[in-house]
What we know:
The protein is an alpha/beta fold and 552 residues long. It folds into 3 domains: 4-235, Rossmann fold (3-Layer(aba) Sandwich); 260-302 and 304-311 and 320-421, 3-Layer(aba) Sandwich (Rossmann fold), CATH 3.40.50.12780; 433-551, ANL, C-terminal domain (GMP Synthetase, Chain A, domain 3). It contains 19 helices and 27 strands. The longest helix is centred in the N-terminal third of the chain and has 17 residues, at 35-51. The protein is globular and about 75 Å long. The protein starts with a helix and ends with a strand. 45% of the residues are buried. The model has no long low-confidence stretch (mean pLDDT 91).
Amino acid sequence: MKHQLAGAYHFEKATKDRVWLTQPTGGGQVLELTWGEAMDQARRMATYLESLGLPEKSQIALFSKNTAWWIISDLAIWMAGHVSVPIYPTLSPDTIRHIIEHSESKLVFIGKLDGYEAMAPGIPDGLPRITTPLCPPGIEGATPWDEIIAGNEPMQGETERDPAELATIVYTSGSTGKPKGVMHSFETLTAGGQGVADLIGADTNDRMLSYLPLAHVYERNLVETTTLLVGYQVFFAESLDTFLTDLQRARPTLFASVPRLWSKFQMGVFKKMPPKKLNLYLKIPILNGIVRKKVLQGLGLDSVRNAASASAPIPAALIQWYNDLGLELLEGYGMSENFGYSHATRPGTVKAGYVGQTYDDVEHRLSDEGEVLVKSPATMLGYFKNEEATAAMLTEDGFLKTGDRGAIDGEGRLKITGRVKELFKTSKGKYVAPAPIENKLMNHPAVEQAYVGGNGQAQPYGVLMLSEDGRAKLSNGGRDDLEESLAAHLAAVNAELDHHEHLKFVAVASDDWTIENGLLTPTMKLKRAAIEDMYQPKEEDWYGTGAKVVFG
């Protein structure tokens, strides 16, 4: 089995003049790079990296939104014999610094980013930096991409990397909220990418739009790894404002997203055609096919033959809505620790609430506690510089402990029924560790206890149990002042968090949380399951208010 770098060399020779990467450059302009052109840039950058004399197999950080140069930079890092360390493009300075310093990165690529000025303090002073095209202006002390490409000859030959070698370190949040470095080899990356490609029948003629963060294993597997193995064309999105145009340009044959975006697409359709009217048209045989085609064409999804949703649960009603349009959404399940290569729904086997069966070379079982355990050929090498956490994550026979509780039906399909750990995912597929945020929320005189929830929602939220001081203010006509104070506190807490952790609102609980009513343990810790059961039915109404502070 060839790995990604070998795949890149293969397509460089076999399809040199074929367009590979299509990159919007602003103002409606698009740059198309052939395999030959993209690999030429990768080879020149690899020559430059080699000239720096970095220690063998150094870590090199990659800090950018998705662009053609993200993938080209990754290839150059591998060609030069080093290890890539992707950084999410929306992290706080503290988290950025932690990842760079913990990974011992010797250099950082800085690419297309929004709000770079606020994140810049996270990059340590003196760390060498390379800026790629579309990067923010005015980055001091950086060497520009074009200057490097113009000043270096292409690296000759084909760098051979052992499949078992460390290829990348992907940082993800652990249960404490601190990012942990998941180590993947070329072999584990390839196992995931090849398995996905085989399942969906991906080939050179396919097209895919890249817009979910490449720093996340979901996109890294479905886009970067898979294109390097089968050679299909990749289009990039320019921005949220141009997303529909980008999608219509790509007319992807393969399309993967998260529930939140599938829902947004639906809302966009409803703005143009009310649900009742659309449903009526879909029930009329003579109009059914015409309406289906028109809606999917409007979304840029009319050429999609395989559509996927993953990273968070998707409502059964939403799956059915797309199915009525003739687009079957196939769910997937996985984690950073197995490169997202775990479970997937096969066409024709969709069952609401289930995330599918294991891939053919993946095993799963439930522990005595009902925890989902998975053994995959894409299982990580371990956590970087954290042997204790690695040992805790794996069973003696090599199964990953997912932290999710589940059930397996007679067809081998998995249903996620809850969480063993406190960690949860938003609908954007980002992990949120609630305890550290709750501690910040409790740093207010009016707050005694705090709970953070929002599993499957776009952003998390907080529920506050007031202290005696807070209750006194509320009962003495001070609701407006309390609301203003809590809103200011929420803003201050959010300023200390990564973007995906930002609380959409805080709700002031009308109930006491006590040991007696089963909401607190004898040591006054939250009983999360009980609190979640109490407030989850209210979530949609709370989100619907649009308020920063909700009483209820």
